Amino acid sequence: MSDSVLIEALEIPAVIGIYEWEKSIQQPLVIDVEMAWDNHAAATSGDIADALDYAAVCQALETAVQAQAWGLIEEVAEALAALILNQFGVVAVRLRVAKPTAIKAARTVAVLIERKRSA
Ligand SMILES: Nc1nc2c(c(=O)[nH]1)N=C([C@H](O)[C@@H](O)CO)CN2
Predict the structure, then answer these.
(1) Residue with CA closest to ligand 1 atom 14
(2) Which of 41, 69, 87, 97 is deepest in the core (most CB within 10 A)?
(3) ipTM of this model?
(4) Membrane-crossing residues (predicted)?
């Protein structure tokens, strides 16, 4: 078993969708993230500098999602996974992007990806 830091159900309003009518409205995206991270150093030192700061990750995800209009939720997932790997020193990430208002008859629809930092 190995350590991780999790973010669950981070809701971010976004301009998201492939249809014309979706380009002028905001719809919520709900994001779950699991980031590989050794939590032992932070547990020992009590120092946020040794931790993967989930607040900083949430802020970065929100800023990135709201910086542009998106088409597919797959594009959002790929971009956010790359951001986490490249900006936060994370070596592996599992990320789910859900669009709960997309399909009336479904509670939610989502994509799930796993990415690793290339050496
Ligand atoms: N795999 C996907 N399928 C669909 C997406 C998507 O982002 N990924 N998007 C749409 C539309 O934007 C839809 O959400 C409008 O209700 C359709 N299929």
Answers:
(1) 102
(2) 97
(3) 0.98
(4) none
Provide the whole-model pTM. Answer: 0.97
**Closest residue CA from atom 15 of ligand 1:** 102
Place 119 in a pLDDT band, splitting at 50, 70 and 90.
Answer: confident
CA distance 101 to 109: 8
Residue 57: other Cβ atoms inside 10 A: 22
Residue closest via CA to ligand 1's atom 8 equals 72
- Of the pLDDT bands very low, low, confident and very high (cuts 50, 70, 90), residue 97 is very high
Rounded (5°) CA angle 76-48-58: 20
In CATH terms, the fold of domain 4-97 is GTP Cyclohydrolase I, domain 2 (3.30.1130)
CA distance 78 to 58: 16
